[in-house]
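May I ask you to review the protein record following this short note?
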Amino acid sequence: MGAHGVKAVFFDLDNTLVDTAAAGRRAIEEVISALQSKHHYGEGEARVICDKVQAKLLKECHDPAKMCITDLRISHWEEAIQETIGGEANRNLAAECYFLWKTTRLQHLTLPEDTRGMLTELRKRVRLLLLTNGDKQTQREKIEACACQPYFDAIVVGGEQKEEKPAPSIFHYCCDLLGVQPAECVMVGDSLDTDIQGGLNAGLKATVWLNKAMTTPVDTSPVPHYIISSVLDLPAVLQKMEHKVNANLGTDHMASSNEAH
């Protein structure tokens, strides 16, 4: 993939390369089990607590200048327990739940063997960069847990930058890091709002939406250039793009030959 083609691929991490959602579900079940067996909560109560925590995580607004992510997330558990059970706040139990959830989730974050193989092969032809939004500590722990560092030329965490995806600035920072132009890069991710919109905002060559469930997006959603149901389908998409480039080069060559005569 030389001139005029793709020189770099940016990958999202969560639910693109690693199944964070599945790891999170395993972690929640572990906490429910501990609340029942160790702390004698009913299953219903334990599930309500965990549902409340997940809702808080989805709405989470974190300012690292004001509070570290650990304190914030222990507070989610503390509030959820108090909202469900009533009585005095129980910071110790909240901390126990949080650390069990976090540890279990990290244990189940793995970069699948076939994905590793694909990244290794791709890197022989293009530069690879991991671009993930989120808190610096949380994302760095995930990167460490799934041991994905050796597969990338660079890793960029949104929480360490001035702006996160979908801001064009973080994509342009990634381009500068690899010494490539936006028009030579492809963004691959599962989020239309951050990965695809961001890639479009930054003027990348192409955006590839990973839609595992093959759901139909709402009409107002950003439109990706390509859609895949598995990250393992990416090499075929890149090949298709390369063929398009070669076909265009051929057409240009024919046009210039015609002009010359």
User: Anything to note?
Assistant: The two ends are 31 Å apart (CA to CA).
